[in-house]
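User: structure tokens for this one?
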Amino acid sequence: MTRQWIFLVSVLVLAYCVGCTSYNKNSEGLRYLGQARYNEAKVAFEAALKAEPNNPDTYYNLAATYHQSGKISLQSGQSADAQLQYDQALRNYQLCLTHNPNHTEAHRGLAVLYMETQNADAAFKLLIDWYNTHVTSPEPKIELARLYQEYAQICQLQNRTDVAKECLDSAAKMLQSALATDPTNYRALRASGFLKEQNGDLQGAITDYQRSFQANPQQNDIENRITALIQRIN
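Assistant:
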């Protein structure tokens, strides 16, 4: 075997080992995260990053862990610690998006973080910028629709009914645009069904939920929702 081949094989073996380490540590971290063992999850994800520093999913996993940990601290009255956790979540969401500017979950997580920290302008700017740079993708439209819906709920609680209506109209338009791009996108159909249900269009909601379920039959909750709405109509 020539030196060149020996070098190439060595590189491939090393890359394989690095990939395995990153995958195993990510799996370990996700298991800890599911058990609400946040400190152990952070250690596992940090180890995954050391093995593979450019993996956007690991940055997202770490951000989600800090985000959830910050929520727990805030609920416990530890506002200073919550702020530290949120700062780390923000940093890792942004690093994820640096490595993958089209990372759906990171956009969603960061938008939620902005909303939770009373920064709606930053949340909308984040998703609108994503939409403007990926105009043919349905994902930014779906997330923008969700943000409009959530902001409409806030406005309704504040008796800002005109703004709430505008937001709901914008959400509907975003979902229509997403479905024009991808008519069988189960997430867009699910979101459209929920919006129609909230607006009292139960038959329209059932139709969208059924189409969403056909596109992705793993949604047991949607199947139950369809049954409940049919019973309400009958």
